[in-house]
Specification:
The structure holds three protein chains of three kinds. By secondary structure, chain A is mainly α. Helices cover 68% and strands 1% of the residues of chain A. Chain A has a domain of 267 residues: Up-down Bundle (Formate dehydrogenase/DMSO reductase fold). The longest helix of chain A is centred in the middle third of the chain and has 31 residues. By secondary structure, chain B is of the alpha+beta class. The N and C termini of chain B lie far apart (38 Å). Classes of the chains: A mainly alpha, B alpha+beta, C mainly alpha.
Chain lengths: 403, 253, 156
């Protein structure tokens, strides 16, 4: 196996500039949407006092979860010594930073007082898992940046393993923290579960690798650099395993809830009676987001077609967004059980009723803006620094090397 | 001087400091105005007290919302403050609301006011990243809007849907209840009144209407009316299973 | 903080006329006029307000000195038509300097920027009082009206 050669992309083609232009336009539109929300207040959004976290949170949490997952490829090479993944490690680290930045941008801009970001950085309540997450996110940027430095500067290469291990542990803690944001909510039937943290970790594996695979495919196709089939298949099979694992966790979560009588209400709501949430769950999350990708990945002939595998990865991403929508918004829409054993027959604040939520254009635009920020960061970084190997052809990366 | 004395009840401190006639003056034979337990303005609230409200659901009249109206007038939210005109009913602030519940087994119908339950272990305080969501030494749970960043995590955590996020610019706030766009707010147990030895507006209004369904007082003082009522007749917490030890209790639920 | 405010004053002193600061309603103290020497207040009001806000909100200390509400009560005065300027307008006491120095403040997104005409402390609070319970008022001869008469005219 040859040592991988990394090279900046040329970045002068019309396609590249068009990509930057489109992403830049999406970001500008997103900033405009944010200005509307900030100027008028959140009444222009779909959120209300029952559904307090809306579409921006779906995008933000998706990106943050995917960020830690995107780092997996690097971890597999540094921590678990799989040399075939080594050439992919730099892109993996870059994508992790970019996705986190995009997610955090959405999160911050959706605050009621984004101008008080400095308060969030200077006043800490250490009992809050949210405060811990702020520290974990900032630490993730630093550790992954150092990790990239260790990988990219030859004289520092020898430290890439210990730093890689630190980054790997950090990302596990980070996703545990993100999952626990929901797991620690005692009063909400949909969230209050220890399984949230491990489920978010496995979701991160899946979402992160799906994005990684698509970015890899796009950058190699658009730059005309070779990407070997064996390596591609290996990544695809890994993604399939992750998608199946997410499905398993979803199954375990719902089975546990179905067993406990106190959770029958929320289960009936999500699985049977929840209208849009039920449809999104079965059609979006299960069929489109899980079963169809698995079919595409493991079908003897479809699984070999890059376009269909790419479609599968896109479906994993869409399914992931839908999964978070069902979990987070569906979980809030289901009424709080304030009076167990009683039925609310009258309330000036819609107690006992399913809460309404319709995403507004502004929220969706802000969410897409976060995604565009992540992608534009990657697009710019691969032009400026040496993130991408000149060749990922099978003979150059030895994908069958197992040690 | 007996325990059954009178009390001008408004702000006793102002009353007594400014109205020279007051201190210890007999205003009727055998009856004295007396300053009881009033905390001086410069002294901090202490954990020697824990303020609470007991709501007797049997006395709470169906269709009556005096407590809600009184709260609106006192704190300047809701209909009396038109500045939330852009927000839809799901977005408008709700510091206190009337809820009517029916027992699924017996069909028994009850009416009650629902607001911040002023938990001893408030989930909203635990989850707040900046510490803006806070509990005072005397058990009153508040939002420090100076450090609230509007993340709404407290609203996710509250089991009672007691908190509101302000969705638009406000005007004409009350001096006693600052509130504004992008921050979270909730019932303050009329902390400004409590600090001047007064009674929350909702409780006052309920009594003024002769429903007498609400009692306010110090849960740590065994001789307070609320403690005696609770000891004698009991009072339940909403979602007692969560172990939050709420400061607001309901009887007859 | 103080430096932040002072800097633009010195920088701009030559170019723009110093702002005309509205007169306060009354003297808070005979000694200084305001609650502290004017020079001190100009330099340190923000720190005092910041300190006071935490004391009041978090500790329940409700003294009048350095209370924002009292600043507004005394300093924000009506014009000839009895109208109060809002924060942001040059006529508003706080805006006068803050506009001049281009220093933004965050107080009035939540706090009321004008005096409030009604005073909640004057409302009566009968019946269930915290220390005696409503028993105290049952069957006695002292009516609310009597109490009202007793207290009227003598409050601030």
């Amino acid at each position: 196996m040859k040592k991988a050669q990394f090279m900046e992309i040329e970045g002068r083609s019309f396609g590249y500039l068009a990509l930057l232009g489109i992403l830049g336009a999406i970001i500008l539109v997103a900033l405009g949407a944010w200005y509307v929300m900030e100027h008028h207040g959140h009444y222009v959004t779909g959120m209300n006092n029952a559904i307090v976290w809306g579409t921006p949170h779906i995008f933000a949490i998706f990106l943050i979860v995917a960020a830690s997952g995107a780092l997996n490829v690097a971890s597999i090479s540094s921590v678990f010594n799989k040399t075939a993944y080594k050439p992919l490690a730099r892109l993996s680290g870059l994508l992790a930073i970019a996705l986190l930045a995009g997610g955090l941008m959405i999160l911050v801009l959706d605050l009621g007082r984004p101008d008080r970001l400095i308060v969030a950085m200077t006043y800490y309540n250490f009992k809050s898992i949210f405060a811990w997450n702020i520290i974990l996110y900032n630490g993730f940027f630093v550790i992954v940046a150092v990790y990239l430095w260790m990988m990219m500067q030859q004289s520092m290469n020898k430290y890439s393993k210990p730093v890689g291990i630190a980054a790997f542990l950090w990302r596990l803690i980070l996703t545990t923290g993100t999952g626990s944001i929901f797991g620690f909510l005692v009063a909400r039937d949909a969230f209050d579960a220890a399984i949230m943290a491990p489920m978010f970790i496995i979701m991160s594996f899946s979402f992160g690798l799906a994005i990684f695979l698509l970015v890899l495919m796009a950058s190699y196709r658009w730059t005309g650099r070779p990407l070997g089939d064996a390596l591609f298949q290996r990544l695809k099979n890994l993604l399939g395993v992750f998608v199946a694992a997410v499905l398993y966790f979803v199954l375990a979560y719902h089975l546990t809830n179905l067993y406990a009588t106190e959770h029958h209400g929320i289960e009936a709501f999500i699985l049977r009676d929840g209208g849009i949430y039920t449809q999104l769950f079965w059609i979006g999350q299960i069929v489109l987001g899980s079963l169809l990708p698995l079919l595409l990945f493991y079908h003897p002939s479809w699984g070999k077609k890059r376009s269909l595998v790419g479609l599968g990865a896109v479906l994993v991403i869409i399914g992931g967004l839908i999964q978070l929508y069902v979990l987070i918004i569906g979980g809030q829409a289901y009424p709080l059980e304030i009076f167990p054993g009683k039925e609310v027959i009258e309330s000036s604040f819609f107690d006992g009723q399913v809460a309404q939520y319709t995403p507004s254009m502004w929220e969706v635009l802000l969410g897409l803006g976060g995604m565009a920020v992540a992608l534009i960061m990657v697009a710019l970084a691969v032009k400026i620094l040496r993130f991408l190997p000149t060749s990922l052809a099978d003979e150059d990366v030895d994908p069958h090397h197992s040690a | 001087m007996t325990n059954k004395t009178y009390n001008a009840d408004l702000s006793r401190r102002h009353f007594f400091s400014k109205a020279a006639a007051a201190a210890g003056m007999a205003i009727a034979p055998g009856v004295f105005l007396r300053q009881v337990h009033a905390r001086p303005a410069e002294q901090a609230a202490t954990s020697e007290k824990r303020w609470g409200i007991l709501i007797d659901t049997d006395k709470c009249a169906k269709g009556c919302d005096s407590c809600v109206t009184a709260c609106m007038n006192e704190n300047g939210w809701g209909e009396i403050n038109n500045s939330e005109e852009h927000s839809n009913p799901h977005q408008k602030a709700q510091w206190i609301r009337k809820v009517t519940v029916k027992d699924k087994q017996t069909g028994h119908v009850q009416s009650l006011p629902l607001m911040c339950q002023h938990c001893e272990n408030p989930p909203c305080v635990d989850v707040c990243p900046t510490g803006a969501s806070m509990k005072r030494a005397d058990g009153i749970v508040l939002v420090d809007k100076h450090t609230c960043i509007g993340c709404r995590y407290c609203m996710m955590a509250c089991p009672y849907k007691a908190r509101s996020f302000i969705h638009e610019d406000l005007e004409d706030q009350k001096v006693v209840a600052p509130r504004g766009k992008g921050t979270v707010e909730s019932c303050t147990m009329c902390v400004h009144r409590v600090d001047e030895d007064g009674t929350p507006a909702c409780v006052e209004a309920c009594n003024a209407d002769n429903h007498n369904a609400m009692y306010f007082g110090d849960l740590k003082d065994p001789n307070s009316e609320i403690s005696r009522q609770l000891k004698q007749y009991g009072g339940e917490q909403l979602r007692a299973d969560l172990g939050l030890n709420t400061g607001v209790r309901y009887r007859g639920l | 903080m103080a430096g932040l405010l002072a800097l633009p004053f010195t920088v701009l002193a030559g170019d723009a006329p110093a702002p005309e600061i509205p007169k306060a309603k009354e003297k808070a103290t005979e000694e200084y006029g305001c609650v502290a020497p004017v020079e001190y207040m100009r330099k340190n009001h923000m720190d005092e307000l910041m300190h006071k806000r935490d004391d009041t909100l978090r500790e329940g200390i409700r003294t009048d000195k350095f209370s924002l509400a009292e600043c507004i009560n005394c300093h924000v005065t009506p014009d000839e038509d009895g109208q109060f300027a809002s924060f942001g307008e040059d006529e508003h006491f706080c805006s006068t300097c803050h506009n001049y120095a281009s220093v933004s403040v965050d107080c009035f997104s939540c706090h009321r920027d004008t005096p409030e005409d009604t005073d909640y402390r004057h409302s009566f609070n009968v019946g269930n009082n915290p220390h005696h319970g409503k028993m105290a008022l049952k069957g006695n001869k002292l009516s609310v009206e009597t109490l009202k008469v007793l207290t009227e005219g003598d409050q601030e």
